[in-house]
Amino acid sequence: MYGLFVMMAILLWSSISKTFFTPSLWTLELAQFAMVTYYVLGGPYSLQAGAHVRMDLFYANWSLRKKASIDALTVFLLIFYLGVLLYGSLASTAFSLGYFDDHPLLFYRDLIVAFVTGGPDAAGEVMGHLERSRTAFRAYMWPIKVIMTFGFFLMLLQAISELIKDIARISGEEI
């Protein structure tokens, strides 16, 4: 919820600076980063709270067992989709940290091993040229990509939790 206030403050400053001062170069890109953070980290919370929108045209009249069956199917598809997103975000984050090969998971293994055995300096040697945005602000991309990866991971964990709950409801357990 507070992420919206951060984004509104950034956009308010953007409007003020464009009207009265020299326009700020960082405001639009930082507002986009704030919105991505709000959206990606808000998804797992919404799933946990049961706040996602459903089509109640048919769903409301179904029995609890049928609802759980349909939910289990859709959550299973969601888990597959989130797995693809997580792998893609891991690859994109590795790219933003300077890794340009085809095996991003090996990069993270090498990065962790270098950090544990040699500290931050050794980990810095594993990383390459850090990716920056192509805007005038030239922000580093790795922070937002790490946030996206973390959000996809949290969403995947919550989806697995929902699948387990749905399977329990199908088998008649009270949750």
From TrEMBL:
GO cellular component: plasma membrane
Source superkingdom: Bacteria
Keyword line: Cell inner membrane, Cell membrane, Membrane, Transmembrane, Transmembrane helix, Transport
Chain ranges passing through the membrane: 33-51, 72-100, 140-160
Subcellular location: Cell inner membrane
GO molecular function per UniProt: transmembrane transporter activity
Domain Tripartite ATP-independent periplasmic transporters DctQ component: 7-92
Membrane topology, from the record: Multi-pass membrane protein
Family: Belongs to the TRAP transporter small permease family.
Record note on quaternary structure: The complex comprises the extracytoplasmic solute receptor protein and the two transmembrane proteins.
Function: Part of the tripartite ATP-independent periplasmic (TRAP) transport system.
Protein name: TRAP transporter small permease protein
Upper lineage: Bacteria, Pseudomonadati, Pseudomonadota, Alphaproteobacteria, Hyphomicrobiales
